[in-house]
Amino acid sequence: MKHSSSESSPARRRRLGRTIFILPSLFTVGNIFCGYYAIISTMRGHYDHAAQAIGIAIVLDMLDGRIARLTNSATDFGLQLDSLADVISFGVAPSLLAFIWGFGPVNSKLGWVAAFTFTICGAMRLARFNVQAGGLKHFLGLPIPAGGGTIAAIVHFFGEPITDRVEAILMVGCVFGLALLMVSTVRYSSMKYLTLGRKSHLTVLLIALVFVSIFFYSRWALLALAGVYVLSGLGVKLVGLARRKKTTDDLALSDSLEHS
To answer: What's the domain range around 109?
Structure first.
């Protein structure tokens, strides 16, 4: 009996190891399901359900990567599956949602172009991310979950489909803008290496306030979070350009004073 127990211990460890490697992929499968559910809900006219499914997909997408890093179970297979899931949940599903929910009053061809542009830019954003060197503490271009999540937040906030032509044109412009940001060189902060740090109590308090706000005021909170994140990259970019211009002007002024 003792010999049998010692033999079964390595077998249990192997099964546990296989389970750990499968766990991140299960979250990715959940991500795919949410994207598929969002597409079906959009086609049936349940737009808020579709938006909420995209939001859940974002949470699952964050969890699968985090779990893979914590358990040291990241694989090339998992990376490719995650990218395919993101194309469905944050590329196809949000673009279809935007097209049916918000582009009705505008020319259908313009709506097609905007929706397809968002999808293809999202796919290129994922391809660029996959070939980038690992360990980066920032994203180059708006992450596709943030792009798809912004569309979902807008739909969740307003609820009813757009019927006004001006509002529809603004929605088309928003989708085009998100698409271009995804393939831009604007830097966005990554949450991969988020730690509590010295002021951990303040970080925990902030996270708690965010969750409470989403629970009680989901429409306003989610739209605000999406908007702040999208604008954060542009804000940092503008500040960097202003500083470089100031440095150039100071150097030019210094040179002119030296030669005067």
So the answer is: 7-196
